[in-house]
Description:
About 30% of the residues lie in helices and about 15% in strands. The protein is an alpha+beta fold. It has a six-stranded antiparallel sheet with strand order 2-1-9-8-7-6, with helices on both faces. Strands 3-5-4 form a three-stranded antiparallel sheet. The longest helix has 15 residues, at about 140-155.
Amino acid sequence: MDSLFLKANKSKEFNGNVLIAKNGKTIYEKAFGQADASGAIQLNKKYRFHIGSIAKEFNAVGIMMLKEQGKLKLDDTISKFLPELPSWANKIKIIHLLQYTSGLPQIKWNEVNNDSDNMEELKRTKSLDFEPGTKYDYNNNNVFLQRRIIERITKMSFNSFVQKKIFPPIGIKNGVVDPGEGEKLFAKSFNNSGKQDVLKYNISGWTALNLEDFYKWSEAINSFKLITPQSTIELLKPFSTGNQTGLGEGSIQQNQVINHIHDGSAFNYQALLVSNPGLTIILVSNNKQNTLEEISTSIQVLLEKN
C-alpha cells in the first residue's frame, strides 16, 4: 500500500488521505502530500476534506429520519412545506427530489451567491423542464429543496440539523458544515498550476469530514444506525438502472448493505467511498486528478493477492 500511494503521490496522481477497513477494523490509514497550495504544510490524518456530492447523503438520510418520525411522507408534494414556490410545486413529490426526477431546472451557478438568491430564482421559475417523475436529471436544486424542507419541519438550519441530529448519534466529533477559509485542519484545494481555489458556497449544507468520521458515516449507513433497512432500501432505489440516488449507488439483500458506492467533487476536491461486506475504501483528495476509481481498483487487487 505504501508503495502504491508513494508512487501515486510522486507522480502527482494522488494528493490526499486514504482509509481502508476490513471486517470493521481499519487496516490502513495515511496522509500523502500537501494540505494547501503553498506546499509548506503536510497533510495528516486529522485533516477534513470537502467531499462534494457525498455530502448529499446527509440531507437524503435527514429526509428519511423525518419520514420515520411521521413528519413527512415521500409522496407529499413539496408545496406542503414550501408554499411560497409557484404552482409547479404541487406536482413535485419528495420522492422526486430524492431520485432527481423533479423536472427542476439546473442552478444558475453564475448568478446565485447564496440560499436566498437561489430561492428567489426558483420563485421566478415559471415552468419545469419536464413532468415530475418522468425523467432523470441529476441537479442540485433537488438537493437544495430537500435541505429547505428539513429546515421547515425542524425549525433549525440544515447545518444545525446535521451538527445536532446526525453527528452525535453516530459519534462524528470533527465534522464541519460549510467550513470557512480559516477553519483549522481543513485541507485547501488547488489545481495543477498550484493555484488555490477560492472557497465559495453558492448553496449551503456541505459537510466536510476527516477519515475517521467519514468511516463512521459509512458504517452508520451499513449498520442502519440512523435509518432502518427499509428506509435505506427506499433511498437506494434509483429511478432507472444506472441512475444515482440520494446515497449514490448501492443495494441491500436480507438487511445487509451489499455495496454502497458514491463519488463526489467540488472545486479541486474529490472523494470516493466504496463499501461492501468486509471491505471499505475511503479516498479524499484536495488536488483532483480523476484517479480515485483507478486507485480503488488497485487497492482491491492488492488485497486479493494478500
